[in-house]
Amino acid sequence: GGFAVQLAAARGLRVVASAGEADEELVRGFGADHFVPRTARLGEAVRALVPGGADAALDAAVTGSAALDAVRSGGSFAALVAGGAPFPLRGTRVFHHWIRADAGALAGLVTLAEAGALTLRVAGSLPLDEVARAHRRLAGPVRGRLVLAP
To answer: What does pTM read for this prediction?
Structure first.
C-alpha cells in the first residue's frame, strides 16, 4: 500500500489513503493528499472528500466492498490479494492483479529507491540462515519488511 501511495503521488494523482490512525503521518509522508482512518466507513469518508466517488481504488489491504463503495459509478477497482475483489457494482470495472516477476518493473523501482523517491520500510535484516527466526518475527506485529541477506 505504501508503495502504491508513493507511486501514485509521484505521477500527480490525488491520493486518498486509508490505514491505522497511528500511521497517518507516515501515509501523508508517502504523499497522500487525504487520510481516512481504517476504522471509518471508507466509502462515506472518501465520498465526502471526493464528491461522486474516486475514479479508482487499489485495495492492498483486502477491504473489498468497503473500498469499492468509495469508487464512482463506472470507475475502476484493483485488488492485490487473490480473492480480495468484490463483485462489480454500478458499472465498475474490477481487476485482480496477480503479482509476478517483472525484471523491468523491479529495475524501475530500484532506480526510484536509489534516487530517494521511494521510501522503503525495513524492520530489520537477518542472515539467510536465520529464516526460521524471521518467520517467528512475522507471526507478530512487524512495521515494515524483514530482509534476509546471505
So the answer is: 0.79
